[in-house]
Amino acid sequence: MGICKFVSVILIFTLFCLPISIYSLSSTELSEIPTNFLNYAQKPELAKWMVDVRRKIHENPELGFEEFETSKLIREELDEMGIVYKHPIAVTGVIGYVGSGEPPFVALRADMDALPLQEMVEWDYKSKIPGKMHACGHDAHVAMLLGAARILQNHRQELKGTVALFFQPAEEGAGGSKKMIEAGALQNIDAIFALHVTARIRAGSVSTRPGPILAGCGMFEAVISGKGGHAAIPQHTIDPILAASNVVLSLQQLVSREADPLDSQVVTVAKFHGGGAFNVIPDSVTIGGTFRALSKESLVNLMHRIEQVIVAQAAVNRCNATVDFFEDDLYSVTYNNEVLHQHFINVAGDMLGAERVQDMKTIMGSEDFSFFSEQIPGYFFFLGMKNESLRKFETAHSPYFTINEGVLSYGAALHASLATRYLLEFEALSHLSKRNVHDEL
Predict the structure, then answer these.
(1) Strand pairing of 206-208 and 378-386?
(2) Model pLDDT for residues 251-299, shown as the tens digit of each residue
(3) Is 421 a residue whose pLDDT tops 90?
(4) pLDDT at residue number 427
């Protein structure tokens, strides 16, 4: 009787405590998934299809929450693949589902929106919409996620759960991810991955890091009010331009004199509006800018100190000041879950080779993927495009920005591999990663 109980305990432990991968696929079979998916993604038919999709989207850029034609194209392609989806999510968003339809669920995210820029690149597929351009690579992001959808749908019988395909609107400052969360997009999702193209590293390489990868970000606008009058008799005025100038200088000391040099922070005044004539002191001046940090504590402290400095420095110059922080538009720190980092290193290393998986420093730019990763374990990485033999690829948000379309296969295969391997290794990854969810703003 004792022996039976011992055998039962061992059996229960084997079934419920060990990672799925131990009794489903060997380590060799797991390591072959990324290379097999890359070979599949690089087949001429699929590679050309992704390029064609990307070019269609590039020709017809749409701004945040206006991505109606982009969303329609995505749904048509998902219909063609036989992939079920939910729409609308956050106005134009789409969520497709591949796999068993049962837990566990892992999400892959691509942003859809363009920027209000006039494209300056002359090529056959230039933006047809004046003043709008895909200058941040979101057209490529959508094409790669659709490519991943084709790979996953073709291998759906091998998925040990469900992959959710997040086509997200309004990443560029409008907080589309927050709207998707409010619409229930993360319900039942255990983890989420996203990528971004970059011209800073070589094609076929990736860069990333665990922990904070992109800064939290806020904006501020201040109105400094005095008393206007003729410039020839300043003694009869209360000069808000002088007050605002002193405010700008004082704000520069918040980082240089108050912040820990090892705790990266930024305060930038990028807007200064006041007056309209050479000989008239205005009644008020409006200034505005951005502040950024790599922790919630530092970001909140910066916000408080910015208001204190503006109000106090205005008072020194006999002016009044009001400050607006647009708190609904605060972006959290984008934080990479440490367990998912090791998962990414394993998958990307198997596909690209360890030498092409690069460590990176944190960047003071921000991403609304942060709202996903503060709710559930998340992971964000950069996919290289650099190839001097083709051309110089400009950095994002430039009117001369272009895409190295040769990297679309890498992005699609990485998406598909990360999701497939996550589901296969879910037992091991989920228990550890949930202990590492980062609590941010």
Answers:
(1) antiparallel
(2) 999 999 999 999 999 999 999 999 999 999 999 999 999 999 999 999 9
(3) yes
(4) 73
Cα–Cα distance list, 45 to 50, 193, 244, 382 (Å): 9, 26, 59, 25
Q: Which token pair is 253?
A: 């000391």
Domain positions in the chain = 25-213+333-436, 216-329
Q: Find out whether 134 is annotated in a ligand binding site.
A: no
Q: Compute the distance between CA of residue 188 and CA of residue 427 in angstroms, rounded to an integer.
A: 15
343 assigned to a ligand binding site = no
The answer to whether 420 touches 29, Cβ cutoff 8 Å, is no
Q: Are 62 and 71 in contact (CB under 8 A)?
A: no
Helical pair 408-424 and 426-433, crossing angle rounded to 10 deg: 90
CA–chain centroid gap for 309, Å, is: 32
Tens digits of residue pLDDT in 296-353:
999 999 999 999 999 999 999 999 999 999 988 899 999 999 999 999 999 999 999 9
In CATH terms, the fold of domain 25-213+333-436 is: Aminopeptidase (3.40.630)
Q: Is 87 annotated as a binding residue?
A: no
| pLDDT grade for 12, boundaries at 50, 70 and 90 | very low
Mean of per-residue pLDDT scores for the chain = 92
CB 171 within 8 A of CB 177: yes
In CATH, the architecture of 216-329 is 2-Layer Sandwich (3.30)
Give residue 24's pLDDT: 61
Structure tokens at 334: 């984008």
Contact predicate 396/136, CB 8 Å: yes
Consult the annotation and say whether 4 binds a ligand.
Answer: no
The answer to whether 230 is a known ligand-binding residue is: no
- What's phi and psi for 172, nearest 5 deg? -80, 70
| Residue 207 Ramachandran class (φ > 0 left, ψ -120 to 50 alpha, else beta) | beta
